[in-house]
Amino acid sequence: MLDWIFEGIVDWVAGIVTDVMDAISGLFLNALGTDMTAMEVYFPFVGKAFTIMQYAAWAILLIVTVWQLFRAFGGPVTEAENPWTLLLRSALFAFLIWFAKPIFLYVLEIAKAPYDALMDVSLGKEDFTFAGIEEALKNGLVTIVSVNTVVGSILLIILMITLGWNYFKLLLEIVERYIVVGVLCYTSPLAYSMGASKTTNQVFKSWCRMVGAQLLLLIMNVWFLRAFNSSVGQFIGNGGALPNGYGSVFLWLFCAIAFLKTAQRFDSHLSAIGLSVAQTGTGLGMEIMLAAQQVSGLSKGFRSAGQMFGGGSPSSPDGGFTGTFTDKFRGNSYVRDAVVQGGTRMGAGGVTGLIGRMFGGLAAKNGASLTGLSVSSVAGRSPDASGMIAGNIADRSLGNYLPHLQGKTLSGTEISGGHITTTAIGADGKEANLELFSASQFEKPDFPHTEVTASDGSSWYQVASGEGASAFNDAPNFTGDAAEASRVAEIFPEAPAGTTLTSMGDGVLEAQTSDGNSLWYNGAYYEEPDAPHTVMHSSDGMEWYAMQPNSEPPAFRGEEGAAEYNCAQFRNSFPEYERGIISVDIAGSENGSFSVRHEDGSATAFYDAARYNAPRGEYASYRDTNGGNWYAVHGEASVERRPVYEDGKPVYDGGNVRTVTVESVRYKTTPERYGGPKERGDNKKPKPPRRKR
Predict the structure, then answer these.
(1) Which residues contact residue 187 at a Cβ distance below 8 angstroms, ignoring those fewer than 6 apart?
(2) Which helix (H) or strand (E) segment is 637 a member of?
(3) Are 500 and 484 in contact (CB under 8 A)?
(4) What distance in Å separates the CA atoms of residue 358 and residue 348, rounded to the nearest whole number?
(5) Closest among 452, 342, 335 to 394, alpha carbons compared
(6) Chain segment 148-183, per-residue pLDDT in tens
């Protein structure tokens, strides 16, 4: 049983090593060529600071030139240079400082020819792949020690890790050598500042030799790496056999590792023959210490294997090796750990966790997404321990955590502890900026929002803004059909029974209830109005301002001779009004106001309380028989002299305008009409809610 466990672990680790080597092979040579594209993209500062390097080089050149000219005054005693020669050389190198980068890039173009030629060499049937290398090693070891034993398993895994680690070190050397060339390129003005004077000219010559040697190393990187790749393909094909019959798996393995070591130390070999080469890479002692740490971690894993994988039949789908391994180490946990910026890890630590996160990063780059559980492990934690998930994988994964965003095109997503931001693009191309706050970590916002439920059952306050916000803030479309009553009650549980709704446009509904008709305004689009209203909440938590239905005036008639009828209609609608009336002025009744005249010439004006502010000063309140509220303002009789007009022009008697006496009513106050709800401006971004303590 234990042998089977070890064999399973060995196959798993060997598969990881070969997959990693396959995933990263070729990537470096294709991305890091003989141009400075990767240098400028990954380190944009060096390009922006190049001008500063030029100014610094000119300053150094000026200092060196002035100093050497000063020495010339000492004559033969100081062994100074010829001033004219010094000035000419200084002018030349000042000119070269200005064109330092184009000159360096031209030299790189020269090195590009052999680099590309080596890259284009076809390997034919020896084309490179690491797939199957573990099987070739295992088959080669069968003749020496059985791989079914613990010794054979440990030996196989050590060989695989040794080969993979040295290959990884060679790739690291390749990157370091490329970076050295980049540093030489973007600091080249400083080298030219040393070329004017004989005393500093050796610095410039050494720099030139180093540039040549580093470019040679760039070319040799291709030679070494592709030669090793062809060796791997050859080994998988023939198992390390030679035509003379003396080859073996160990001979090939030792040759392959020695080849990788030689490639890593080739800079030392060039330095030994007199070329100025920057020394890169780690020492042998560091490598041995790291290898010992890896083997130590593996041995601990072997000792705990019985506890980790025991307790079930190997063939059982829910127990034993497969069931326990899958339950303990979910691949999605490693993907999550690979992409989260900070925070606490979900997966295992040590060597296993390192390899898992490496694969998680590769999976993320190749389109993997996080489960709702993985997203919850960040979004559901406090910000000091959660970290952040951002980038393309956050865009792909947020819908797994917030089901209402599934199928949406998201961009710019950032997921952190209790706070999520994203931009959703609708089918019409309109963008909606979404900001979500965890209900368990934030107090309820004091601005309009909706409440959504995540896959882990947690509640979130969602705020939507932008052109596409209607897809997240509006209620579904209503037609006013009575058959929609159950749907209305489901979406607006606070609405009176029997309410029917009709959609009137973005953020506006017309409601018909037993109290009359009114408009409802979505709080995401409109500020809370001053007019009488009721704050309704939809099932998703959004505020709607349900305006109080307007009070309808009595059914007055406007034709001539209807005065007695209108007076009767008023008495029937306002039985509490005790004063006698002789006429009704129905002008303005469509806007919720009218007035009645009394026998003494005075009058009382009535204003719908749902459409007008309460008047200033003295007034009375009356309720009509339909339940409507009205403000009553008393006015005293008065006489006014008004000018006489004919054809729109005043009529004159001599030099004075002709006037006529008119009876009227003078009111001490007139109430102001309520304005409609104001639309929310885009510049009024609400403040985020406060975090709970």
Answers:
(1) 53
(2) strand 629-643
(3) yes
(4) 13
(5) 335
(6) 455 555 666 677 777 777 877 887 887 888 888 888
Q: Which residues, in sequence order, are CB contacts of 526 under 8 Å at separation 6+?
A: 507, 545, 677, 678, 679, 680
The rounded Cα 515 to chain-centroid distance in angstroms is 48
And the tokens for 9? 């672990």
Helix %, strand %, coil % of the chain (to 5): 50, 20, 35
In what helix (H) or strand (E) does residue 233 lie, and over which residues does it extend? Answer: helix 201-238
> Which tens digits make up the pLDDT trace of 515-532?
888 899 988 888 889 899
Judge whether 179 and 186 are in contact, CB under 8 Å: no
Q: What is the pLDDT of residue 291?
A: 46
10 Å Cβ neighbour count for 79?
10
- Are 364 and 338 in contact by the 8 Å Cβ rule? The answer is yes
pLDDT tens-digit profile of 414-426? 999 999 999 999 8
The residues that bridge with 518 in the sheet, in sequence order, are: 511
Q: How far apart are CA 462 and CA 687, in angstroms?
A: 13
Q: Is the pLDDT assigned to residue 129 strictly greater than 70?
A: no
**Would you state the structure tokens that stand for residue 579, as one six-digit string?**
């004063």
Kindly report, residue by residue over 614-661, the tens digit of the pLDDT. 999 899 999 999 889 999 999 998 887 778 788 878 878 777 877 777
Cβ atoms of 556 and 586 closer than 8 Å: yes
The Cα 28–Cα 248 span in angstroms is 31
Residue in this structure with the two tokens 């060529």, named with its chain if needed: 33
Taking the C-alpha atoms of residue 292 and residue 160, their distance in angstroms, rounded to an integer, is 14
What's the token pair of residue 542?
């959004």
Tokens for 312, please give them.
């079930």
Strand order in the sheet with 533-537: 500-505, 508-513, 516-522, 543-547, 533-537
Amino acid type, 665: V
Residue 105 φ/ψ, nearest 5 degrees: -65, -30
Characterize 332-342 residue by residue with b for buried, 16 or more Cβ atoms within 10 angstroms of its Cβ, and e for exposed: bbbbbbbbbee
Distance CA 451, CA 458 (A): 10
Position of tokens 């090195």?
A: 111
User: Cα(519)–Cα(539) distance, rounded to whole angstroms?
Assistant: 19
The alpha helices in 121-200, defined as continuous H runs, are 133-141, 150-186, 188-192
pLDDT at 300: 46
Q: Which of 15-19, 341-345, 374-378, 677-681 has the lowest mean pLDDT?
A: 15-19
Q: Are residues 400 and 375 in contact, defined by beta-carbon separation less than 8 angstroms?
A: yes
- Residue 318's pLDDT is what? 40
The confidence score (pLDDT) of residue 20 equals: 60
Distances (CA, A) of 189 to 57, 200, 526, 595: 6, 14, 61, 91
Percentage of residues of the chain with pLDDT beyond 70: 76
